[in-house]
């Protein structure tokens, strides 16, 4: 069955709401050529036409490409961007099994990525967590203030002011969707596990910063792009997806040397987190991780 052809009208309508997002992921998975990518990107001012052209190009590349694109549309992070796509993929019926487990053990029987946090922020779920969900939670009366108050009590003396100073040099990641691997790294991180145990006078875990924040002006400091390009990109700060896409295109266009330097820079930023994870995995408990995400 040609899923794209069958649902072409509704797909065009849904995807045209954020054409740059789907185009980036289609190119990343090499479902279209670079030539097609730049051709489609040139239609960004006409999202309906751009989406229709994208669907036609995907269909023209054969069944294998169509199936890979359909699989991409089933990904949770894609559904976060296009909630209406869920309507095209109804859940498959499953045989009902009578619940015989002791309710006190039900949390342990859930898949790791399905577990919900407990305690103060029990309505947050790590799997599929987004900035929108975090903002919605913190905006509820008293939640934000209580989290800050609990954090100040938890930290070592003067750590809060140092943390605030450190965060001034960083910006929140534009997109936040924690997959199973990211959740596992958080739950098995030794420093974070220690921080979440009862008691005060704790160090703030570095992995949290690496998970939620990026350094400011990294590209400008490394001089991988010109000042002119930097200012152009900075003007798109209210459109993070478009800004990121433009940045990556500019870096690719500057040649192999720039691409390699950018790759090395990304590896360096990831190195601290990776080293922490290696150490933590060696000392991690056999089962589970911190269940109480209160601070």
TrEMBL record:
<dbReference type="InterPro" id="IPR001315">
    <property type="entry name" value="CARD"/>
</dbReference>
<feature type="domain" description="CARD">
    <location>
        <begin position="1"/>
        <end position="75"/>
    </location>
</feature>
<feature type="region of interest" description="Disordered">
    <location>
        <begin position="89"/>
        <end position="121"/>
    </location>
</feature>
<dbReference type="InterPro" id="IPR011029">
    <property type="entry name" value="DEATH-like_dom_sf"/>
</dbReference>
<dbReference type="GO" id="GO:0042981">
    <property type="term" value="P:regulation of apoptotic process"/>
</dbReference>
<protein>
    <submittedName>
        <fullName>Uncharacterized protein LOC115817110</fullName>
    </submittedName>
</protein>
């Amino acid at each position: 069955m040609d899923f794209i052809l069958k649902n072409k009208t509704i797909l065009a309508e849904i995807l045209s709401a954020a054409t740059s997002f789907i185009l980036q992921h289609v190119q990343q998975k090499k479902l279209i050529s670079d030539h097609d990518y730049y051709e489609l990107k040139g239609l960004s001012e006409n999202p309906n036409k751009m989406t229709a052209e994208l669907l036609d190009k995907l269909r023209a590349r054969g069944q294998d490409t169509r199936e890979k694109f359909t699989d991409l549309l089933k990904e949770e992070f894609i559904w976060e961007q296009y909630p209406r796509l869920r309507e095209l993929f109804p859940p498959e019926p499953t045989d009902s099994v009578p619940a015989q487990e002791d309710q006190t053990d039900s949390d342990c029987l859930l898949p790791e990525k399905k577990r919900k946090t407990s305690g103060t922020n029990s309505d947050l779920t790590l799997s599929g967590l987004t900035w929108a969900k975090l903002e919605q939670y913190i905006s509820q009366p008293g939640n934000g203030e209580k989290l800050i108050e609990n954090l100040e009590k938890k930290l070592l003396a003067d750590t809060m002011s140092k943390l605030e100073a450190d965060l001034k040099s960083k910006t929140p990641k534009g997109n936040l969707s924690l997959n199973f691997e990211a959740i596992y790294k958080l739950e098995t991180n030794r420093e974070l596990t220690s921080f979440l145990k009862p008691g005060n006078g704790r160090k703030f875990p570095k992995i949290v910063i690496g998970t939620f924040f990026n350094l400011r002006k990294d590209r400008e400091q490394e001089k991988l792009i010109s000042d002119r390009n930097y200012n152009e990109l900075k003007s798109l700060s209210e459109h993070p997806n478009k800004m990121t896409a433009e940045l990556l295109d500019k870096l690719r266009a500057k040649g192999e040397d720039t691409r390699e330097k950018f790759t090395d820079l990304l590896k360096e930023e990831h190195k601290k987190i990776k080293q922490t994870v290696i150490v933590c995995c060696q000392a991690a408990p056999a089962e589970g991780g911190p269940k109480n995400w209160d601070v």
